[in-house]
Amino acid sequence: MTLISNSWLALIISLPASSATPRMRIWRAVKSLGCAALRDGAYLLPEKAEQATQLQSLADEVRQEGGQAWLLHVQARNMADQAAYQALFDRTKDYAQWLLDLAAARKTLSSLGSTELNRLERRQARAYDAIRKIDFFPGEISIRAQAQWRDFVNAVATMQSPGEPLATTGSIARRDRMQYQGRRWATRRNLWVDRVASAWLIQRFIDPHACFLWLDDPADCPPEALGFDFDGATFSHIGERVTFEVLLASFGLEGDRGLAQLGAMVHALDVGGTPTAEAAGFEAVLAGARKRWPDDDSLLADIGGVLDSLHAHFSNPRKP
Q: Rounded distance, CA 312 to CA 315, Å?
């Protein structure tokens, strides 16, 4: 967040010498809110920061612990004061340390399994978000941190799903479903969200007699097969759309309410974005199915029923 304001809130507190535990608890609280310490017991925060509303609760807590607390409005007198106040919130050191930790974490990726990769990504995400939430005046290092985080997430995604396609530019040609009947379709094995949903879509709405080939290496895709969801495939990511969405547009299926909602869910799970309420549940079911079924044909048959149910759910404008 970038704040432009010359108005500030100052929290001044005094606790009895015997209140060591409350003192530590309140100190941790003001630190987590991103307050700058003017001196012991005096803290500053931009008035427009989202966290500013919590200062009153801290003042009340101090009084309940037998201390004194004042919450004051402070106005910068001039640009020099404003610059001095902002300098107190410089997060360069925080970002620098996190970037070092991120670089060290990235060196370990190749040695980690799927569970460890997910755990590492969540831990680094929490650390990054903690800094961003209190970075009220982002500078150049915040831009660098954002780029490094994006690269890290992409590196984890590559480890999790080798061969994940890169989006290409261009328009999506409209295709006649009648020309795509009884065909052989091919994608990468070990199906995950976009691939399993795309295979289901092909089977249910495009080519009911489709035959699927699960590839160890996309380079082995037969020339007569219709590849999907890998670089160079007939159907893959284009622009902001994932393969499932490209197939919807290619075969004129975007008007189907249920399929459009499924597309939003698949998009969020595959490349990020605003998740639907059902996304986490579907991802958990798919992860469990991958453990139960040793082959992708069985996996598709199992998850196909789940997607049928989700399609029916999304197609109903009146959901219970």
A: 5
